[in-house]
Amino acid sequence: MSLIEQAAQRLEQLRQAGVDVPSPPPVEVVAEPKLEQAPPKARPKKPLPPVKREEPETLESTEMALSRRVVLDLDALTAAGIIRPDAPRSQLADEYRVVKRPLIDNAMGKGAAPIKDGNLIMITSALPNEGKTFTAANLAMSIAMELDNTVMLVDADVARPSLLKALGLPPARGLLDVLVDESIDLQHVLLRTNVEKLTILPSGTAHPRATELLASDAMVRLLEDMASRYSDRIIIFDSPPLLVTTEARTLASHMGQVVIVVKAGSTAHADVKHALATIEACPVKLMLLNQAKTSVQDGYGYGYGYGS
Q1: What is the mean predicted confidence (pLDDT) over 29-55?
Q2: Of the candidates 253, 146, 239, the residue with the CA atom closest to the CA atom of residue 201
Q3: What are the beta bridge partners of residue 122?
Q4: Among 183, 200, 219, 270, which has the minimal tally of Cβ within 10 Å of its Cβ?
Q5: What is the pLDDT of residues 218-243, one digit of tens each?
């Protein structure tokens, strides 16, 4: 029992015994004055972070983000006879300027008449070893010098791919992989290069039915997509020779322009006529004379000629 309870009990016993015990004075409870509380201070509002205005994504910017970058050894390519965008003026570069101009005009709808899929340009030859890969690489490099156009270089010679080797690059996934597997998007196999306006599409992983794939409906759909995806892009196809494989003729039927490379002093006239007969349906056909002997008048003297 607590002391207070004991004291209360003792007082009660005294009262019962007749002892006059005075009651304790009443305790006055004084209410404490209420303090007026100041209104809560308003917290300063933090400034909202500036809204970052992102540029709208374009197909080309998306492609660049997804594709893989490779570095071309431009010095080695120059030694192999392939022009480079930053090279000083040369006879070879000047000749390709002449070659590319009508091709670009046709591709961009500036020719004498509109050409369907004019930006799809196939580089081929009647027979192997006439310089079509060399021509395709140089034409692509020359177009990459343009201010208003970009260029994609495609190794479409799937039976005997040689483009990556000519450019000093290792094998990589490419065209055949896209045709075999629909889940692989074209953007994932493109190679961006250190030449700003040049991308490369390799032939891809070797396939036992590579020639059939090049003539398939999947290839037709891919070509239609490539032709319409970029309005400023010119696509150069290094294709198989016309008289060796049938897929080159099928591919040519979907091209807007075809350039046939003829090796000077080597290709028979009959072979050239036969090759031209296989692509009669193509709206634009040009012939380019490779390795022609030219006189040196201005110090360039590379020995390259062209014809149409």
Answers
A1: 54
A2: 239
A3: 237, 258
A4: 183
A5: 999 999 999 888 778 999 999 999 99
Selecting from 3.40.50.300, 3.30.365.10, 3.40.190.10, 3.30.70.20, what CATH number does the domain 59-290 have?
3.40.50.300
pTM of the shown model: 0.75
d(CA 287, CA 269): 12
Alpha-helical segments (H) within the chain: 3-16, 59-66, 74-79, 91-107, 132-144, 163-166, 175-180, 210-214, 217-229, 247-252, 269-277
How far is Cα 100 from Cα 135, in angstroms, rounded to an integer?
Answer: 11
CB 191 within 8 A of CB 88: no
pLDDT at 9: 75
Q: Residue 299: is its pLDDT beyond 60?
A: no
Look at residue 307 and tell me whether its pLDDT is greater than 50: no
With CA atoms as reference, report the closest residue to 308 among 283, 289, 294, 280.
289
Instruction: Take residue 262 and report the two structure tokens written for it.
Output: 């003829």
Cα→Cα distances 162→31, 60, 106, 238, Å? 101, 27, 27, 9
Strand partners for 286:
259
114 class by beta-carbon count within 10 Å (0-12 exposed, 13-18 middle, 19+ buried): exposed
Show Cβ contacts of residue 115 under 8 Å, excluding neighbours closer than 6 positions. 106, 107, 109, 256, 257, 283, 284
Distances (CA, A) of 80 to 92, 137, 209, 268: 12, 11, 32, 26
Taking the alpha carbons at both ends of the chain, their separation in whole angstroms is 124
pLDDT (0 to 100) of residue 54: 46
Domain boundaries, the chain: 59-290
